[in-house]
Write a structure and sequence with these properties.
Distance between the termini: 76 Å
Number of strands: 7
Helix content: 25-40%
Shape: globular
Structural class: alpha/beta
Length: 195
Amino acid sequence: MRLIVRVAASCAALLCLAAAPAESPVAVPEPDGLYAGPPKGYTPPTLKGATVIDADGLTTLMAGPNKPALIDVAAPDRKPSNFPAGRLWLPVHPSIPGAVWMPEAGAEPLAPEREALFYRRVAELTGGDTAKPVVVFCHVECWGSWNAGKRLVLKGYTGVRWFPEGVEGWQDKNETASLHVDPAWKAGAEPQAGR
């Protein structure tokens, strides 16, 4: 009898926890500003000032007349510490075809010169049209894409789409392409001569 009471009490406690919105991954509140915690983890279901889209919505948007700028902010793969010495490390970055890869552009904090470069590249990709659709993404449960979208909303972009399913959500139904880091983004990370 005691076992049944303990099991019933445990089940009741679990149900209470499951019903609590603060504990639910789908009830993660939006921070007031940019998120500076761990880059991987449950994200809010919304991004104020932006439209949240799924893979079908992205496919429809990409097929429409006003092609979106696709911005991948995923961090690059890191060479494993136990990777054999002398072996060639050739990481591949699968992404959505046509995307521009600016690794870690959603980091917080982001150095001021990197943030300025991010805004400059987005302006170039949108032709200066702050209403043009801009889709930001990285991986599932990635705060980097949420932050990148938030940065654009705060900068006055009104066509921001956040694709929280990321590359994994895209590749469930579509082909991916191997991307290289955006040349301007890569050049901005390298030390300049004379500095």
